[in-house]
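Feature request, filed as a ticket because there's no other form

It would be nice if the structure record came with a short human-readable summary line next to the tokens. Right now we just get the raw output. Example of a typical job, pasted below so the devs can see what we mean:
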Amino acid sequence: MYSPDQPLPTFDEVLLCSSQTTAEQVELFLRRCFIQCSGGEKIYTMLYADELSYDVSCRTEELFQHLQHYNCTYRLIILCNCEREHSYIPSVFSQYKVHMIPQRQLDEIQQYLQHHYRITGISRSAAYVFKNNMCVGIVSSKRAGMGK
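Raw output as currently delivered:
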């Protein structure tokens, strides 16, 4: 949010982890992170890494230890659920742990995201379905089974 004109992360910079994430997926992601590119400005992020299976977590640690010897300028963020801080990945990387508290107000964050997710110009896009021509939206309900 400090650079509002910078683009949001692309698909190759973010790995959304789950218990079904494979070691191969993590390996491909980490190799992209550690390969020295001409730009070198990308910040790679693993989300919910605490949900990786034990075997995949062990392989992730091994690969991380191996690859970091080849590139000391990598930029990697691993986000985990604080309620699962004793699972494998958060424990292994605990020496790098930083507790995050949002530094911006909710309305500032919403304005920032609206800036990046608004469809501009005249086009036939599904974004016209969402409020203010947004290309993403969240539909929720407090009652289950309401077709949302």
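Something like this underneath would help us a lot:
DSSP finds four helices and three strands in the chain.
The chain has a mean pLDDT of 83.
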